[in-house]
Amino acid sequence: MNWTSESGVDLQAHEGWSDWGDVDCRGEAGDMARIEAVAAEAWRRGRLLSLGGDHSITAPLLRGRVRDGHPLTVLHFDAHPDLYPELDGNRDSHASPFHRVMEEGLASRLVQVGIRSLNAVQAAAARRFGVEIVRPDGLPDWPGLVGTDPVYVSFDIDALDPAFAPGVSHHEPGGLSVREALQALRRVQAPIIGADIVELNPDRDPDGRTAAVGAKLVKEFLSRLVQP
After folding, report:
1. Hey, where are the domains in the chain?
2. Is 77 strand, coil or helix?
3. Rg, C-alpha atoms of the chain
4. What contacts 24+ positions apart, CB below 8 Å, involve 179-187?
5. Closest CA to 184 of 151, 215, 209
6. What does the pLDDT profile of the chain (228 residues) look like in tens digits?
7. Which residues contact 11 (CB under 8 A, 6 or more apart)?
8. CATH code assigned to 48-225
9. Is the Cβ–Cβ distance between 52 and 35 less than 8 Å?
């Protein structure tokens, strides 16, 4: 694999990052607390890029961050807004992380890009929390994020059209191309302090196409995180 990002950062030669390995989560009741504890240690040492699991991991990842008084913007790429108050009685569901994030004040602003599945329940939550939704057809006109407030990026791979990334659990045609997603990331002219990439399902990715896209995203995200 070529470890040089499109911005010219050679990650193989860069000493500003390290791989912490896997967090042992096996469906036990303490999983969220375990993720939060590991994330807290990572945040204390610097910035954070987390890979995989479903989208339920985003809330505990952000709970682990020490709040420093600077308003945090979450930029969320997804086909779905994941704003349910709960799903089947589970408040920590993969369909609920951004309800938790906003409800708990873990972010002051939530911008969602690529959304193309919004029902009445989640639309009501979006209004309650003042969520800014950018649908795929509105992306060309999206001005991006500018300023000094830190940004955390949460990227669900099903934000991409299944033609580019079929290895996800919930296919939603009409999504972003890989190039559109990378162009949107470039419009973030604010410090990115952390990110997660979630929801890759290898059982639906027989030719490895989605894994290749995931690796590309890792490279581009890391190149932003290691820069001052």
Report:
1. 48-225
2. strand
3. 16
4. 180/136, 180/139, 181/77, 181/114, 181/155, 181/217, 182/6, 182/220, 184/77, 184/113, 184/139, 184/142, 184/144, 185/153, 185/220, 185/221, 185/224, 186/144, 187/142, 187/143, 187/144, 187/145
5. 151
6. 788 999 998 898 888 888 888 888 766 667 899 999 999 999 999 999 999 889 999 999 999 997 777 899 999 999 999 999 999 999 999 999 999 999 999 999 999 999 999 999 999 999 999 999 999 999 999 999 999 999 999 999 999 999 999 999 999 999 999 999 999 999 999 999 999 999 999 999 999 999 999 999 999 999 999 987
7. 3, 4, 5, 17, 219, 222, 223, 226
8. 3.40.800.10
9. no
Place of tokens 């990331």: 185
What is the residue type of 44? R
pTM over 0.90? The answer is yes
Q: Which burial class, exposed, middle or buried, applies to 127 when counting CB atoms under 10 A from its CB (0-12, 13-18, 19+)?
A: exposed
* Tokens read off for 144: 């991006």
Q: Where are the beta strands (DSSP E) in 58-143?
A: 73-77, 109-113, 132-134
User: Which residues are within 8 A (CB) of 217 and not within 5 positions of it... i.e. 6 or more apart?
Assistant: 155, 157, 181, 197
